[in-house]
Specification:
Protein name: UPF0056 membrane protein
Pfam families: MarC
Keywords: Cell membrane, Membrane, Transmembrane, Transmembrane helix
Number of domains: 1
Number of helices: 10
Helix content: over 70%
Main location: membrane
Shape: globular
Family: Belongs to the UPF0056 (MarC) family.
Radius of gyration: 17 Å
Structural class: mainly alpha
Number of strands: 0
Strand content: under 5%
Distance between the termini: 31 Å
Length: 206
């Protein structure tokens, strides 16, 4: 249960589906409720598939490029810190690669559930590196199943939040979403710093 909660909390904080609500509404404006629901469903499915693939195949990619797990943790920590700082400063949408040009282009396509909603907004470098590092730390089959279950729970959360995007936007308003994003941003920043410090201690054997 502890591993499940740790994985869920870390992934949910890094992915930050609540912070994606305004972008989701912007990309699906003019769509019917059924169309928005379908986009939310496929976004969550894509997020789940991408994260699971990253979790199981990430080690192969690291070995191919000759990258050590501790170096990956540092790089991932930097990316996670960058995302956290972006949430705190209100510039996270830019750091996700969703600028005005990308948003306008996405509105003309039917695959926004994959990009930019799933990639790079949610299943980005931060969440991918987090899972690759966890795969190295938890080698037992039971632990891997627990982590996959946590990924599935996060994907369900993504679906429920995006499906309720209109209601969340009305209830919280722009200021409420920003406030929650700032709190999540602080947690994300702390996660990134912890990853960097832990890896440096291992590398320098302090």
């Amino acid at each position: 249960m502890d591993l499940f909660l740790i994985t869920f909390a870390a992934l949910f904080s890094v992915i930050n589906p609540l912070g994606s609500v305004p972008i989701f509404l912007g990309l699906t404006q003019g769509d019917t409720k059924e169309s928005q629901k379908r986009t939310a469903l496929w976004t969550s499915v894509n997020v789940f598939i991408i994260l699971v693939i990253s979790f199981f195949i990430g080690k192969v990619i690291l070995n191919f490029f000759g990258i050590s797990i501790d170096v990956l943790r540092i790089a991932g920590g930097v990316v996670i810190c960058s995302s956290g700082f972006g949430l705190l400063s209100g510039t996270f949408s830019k750091k996700r690669g969703v600028n005005k040009k990308v948003a306008n282009d996405a509105q003309q396509r039917n695959d926004i559930a994959l990009t930019p909603l799933a990639i790079p907004m949610m299943a980005g470098p931060g969440s991918m590196s987090l899972l690759i590092a966890m795969e190295q730390d938890y080698q037992e089959i039971l632990n891997k199943l627990i982590i996959v279950t946590a990924i599935f729970a996060v994907a369900i959360s993504v679906f429920l939040i995006l499906r309720s995007a209109n209601y969340i936007s009305k209830i919280l308003g722009a200021s409420g979403i920003v406030a929650i994003s700032r709190i999540i941003g602080f947690l994300v920043l702390a996660i990134g710093i912890q990853y960097i410090i832990t890896s440096l201690l291992i590398l320098f054997k302090i």
